[in-house]
């Protein structure tokens, strides 16, 4: 009887230990997903209980930043547990040269934090190039390009007056359309050459990141959902909040989406031409549901991630595909469809929201392995990606040093 009882106790302890290990592993999986990391290859069997508990405890105490270390690398314990290669960043190493003009980071379509620049990016740019290199402008969410651009110009003019220098604009998503509208002679100050001359005194360059220059079918799908009364899921993806209760206010959402659809893009681009004397460049993100690329998607990457000469323009380690955040699965089915520079409807790789063909404007610099939130250090992902190596703060440090090399 005693032997049976002892065996039972040992079995119960073993079961409890197993359950505890599995529970801790489940917590780690949840933490990774919440912070925008891939948990596809998580294998807790190779990691001891103490390490697992330490990782979960680090996330509980430090949030998503616990995944990284002060030198920018990913915690090697996490690399082992998650089965990540944790490569070096695929983008060029930044130089320390200070740009001639400060960088102004312009926000996206929604006022939610997930559609605005992670503050660590601005802090990293200042740290690398000197305090006062990076500034931030937040424009109103869910408004037309004309409305947003008027607010943007007021902020830029005020900043220019305070600093006494031109500005390099770095504009995210829909913010890229706002930046182009302000800069264009046919935009905010159409028919007012004297006022537009003031714009040329303020704006040195426009860098757009994942901007729907040629529209996105996601906007058309959202409009259709508005009409059917089922828009919340799509609009929640727009704001990066899967549980958000998004309610259109006074037609603002509808007017905004109408300006982003496939039919609106050609007319906008025909009118909002680039301004002479301002340098324009663009970048796009590419990502995949569950990080699973195919021969078809890779063929599209090879076709569209090219510069004007047709040469490859892709910052990615071979085989290291970004894992798209789950909230973008809602918009992903429509995100690859846009128009091209000839106005034809095309399918190209996307970041889950905006396609590469749509994101190209001015000098296209290339595709980065990042989804629509990764490119600005969101959602939750404030450190280097363990699968792709993409490091948002470092990427913008490089953009700053690249602008400096161009005399900007």
Report a brief summary of the structure.
By secondary structure, the chain is an alpha/beta fold.
Average pLDDT works out at 87
Treating each run of at least 4 consecutive H or I residues as one helix, how many helices?
Answer: 15
Unreliable sequence segments:
7-18, 243-248
Class derived from helix and strand content? alpha/beta
Distance between the termini: 84 Å
SSE series: HHHEHEHEHHEHHHHEHHEEHEH
CATH topology of the largest domain, what is it called?
Rossmann fold
CATH superfamily of the largest domain: Alpha/Beta hydrolase fold, catalytic domain
For the secondary structure, the number of strands is: 8
Biggest sheet, strands in spatial order?
A: 2-1-3-4-5-8
């Amino acid at each position: 009887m005693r032997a049976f009882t002892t065996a039972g106790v040992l079995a119960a302890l073993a079961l409890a230990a197993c359950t505890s290990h599995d529970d801790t592993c489940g917590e780690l999986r949840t933490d990774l997903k919440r912070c925008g990391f891939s948990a596809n290859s998580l294998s807790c069997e190779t990691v001891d209980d103490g390490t697992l508990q330490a990782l979960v405890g680090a996330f509980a105490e430090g949030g998503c930043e616990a995944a990284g270390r002060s030198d920018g690398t990913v915690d090697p314990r996490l690399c082992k547990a998650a089965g990540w290669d944790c490569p070096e960043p695929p983008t060029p190493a930044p130089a320390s040269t200070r740009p001639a003009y400060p960088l102004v980071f312009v926000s996206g379509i929604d006022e939610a934090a997930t559609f605005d620049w992670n503050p660590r990016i601005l802090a990293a740019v200042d740290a690398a190039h000197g305090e006062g290199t990076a500034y931030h402008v937040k424009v109103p969410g869910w408004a037309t390009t004309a409305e947003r651009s008027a607010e943007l110009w007021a902020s830029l003019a005020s900043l220019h007056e305070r600093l006494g220098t031109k500005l390099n604009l770095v504009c995210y998503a829909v913010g890229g359309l706002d930046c182009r509208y302000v800069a264009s002679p046919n935009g905010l100050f159409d028919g007012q050459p004297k006022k537009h001359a003031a714009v040329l005194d303020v704006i040195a360059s426009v860098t757009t990141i994942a901007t729907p220059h040629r529209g996105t079918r996601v906007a058309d799908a959202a409009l259709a959902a508005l009409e059917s009364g089922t828009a919340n899921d799509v609009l929640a993806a727009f704001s990066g909040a899967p549980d958000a209760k998004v309610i259109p206010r006074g037609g603002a959402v509808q007017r905004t989406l109408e300006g982003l659809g496939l039919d609106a893009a050609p007319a906008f681009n025909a009118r909002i031409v680039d301004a002479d004397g301002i340098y324009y460049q663009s970048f796009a993100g590419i990502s995949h549901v569950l990080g699973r690329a195919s021969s078809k998607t890779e063929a599209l990457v090879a076709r569209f991630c090219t510069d004007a000469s047709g040469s490859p323009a892709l910052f990615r380690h071979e085989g290291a595909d970004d894992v798209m955040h789950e909230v973008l699965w809602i918009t992903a089915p429509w995100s690859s469809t846009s128009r091209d520079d000839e106005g034809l409807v095309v399918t190209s790789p996307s970041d889950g929201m905006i396609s590469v063909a749509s994101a190209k404007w001015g000098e296209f610099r290339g595709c980065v392995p990042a989804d629509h939130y990764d490119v600005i250090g969101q959602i939750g992902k404030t450190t280097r990606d363990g699968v792709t190596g993409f490091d948002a703060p470092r990427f913008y440090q490089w953009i700053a040093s690249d602008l400096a090399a161009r005399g900007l």
